Amino acid sequence: TNRTSRGFSLIESMTVMAVAGTLLGSAAPGFMxxxxxxxxxxxxxxxxxxxxxxxxxxxxxxEAVRFTFGVGTGSGCYVIHTGSPGSCRCSAPDQPAVCxxxxxxxxxxxxxxxxxxxxxxxxSTFGFDPGTGTVTPTATLKLSNPNAQTLHVVxxxxxxxxxxxxxxxPGYRAC
Length: 175
Hints:
Structural class: alpha+beta
Radius of gyration: 24 Å
Number of strands: 11
Largest sheet: 5 strands, antiparallel
Helix content: 25-40%
């Protein structure tokens, strides 16, 4: 009887595995850059939402609500709080904000090195007025990732928030 063999030989299987491994290895950096970009966009959306929340909270509670930034062991952090400027601070991951005097933390967000992004601003603290929702001083928050992508979240004097990109992140207008 004449038997025909079916299936793949070990050499054919190993060749296919080597080609697949090479293709996956060359695509991995692109996936990491894509993931970093999406993480940056998510962080910018979070900061925008938090700023709008702080503004509405100030008007609702009829008391000043502040945003205070810090750089600790992570890549940056901020705390939304009531009380005087500088009465609350953040610094360590998995730690609550430290408040003194009349300060009370509402929310703390810490960006860790695992997040692969950083947040910077020239204004270490700014506050929303309870009567008008305006902000003093104005601020620009700069979020960036290791791929040199940057998004700015801008708070104008009226307390309105917008995001823009100084280096052409898709989906954002230019700063």
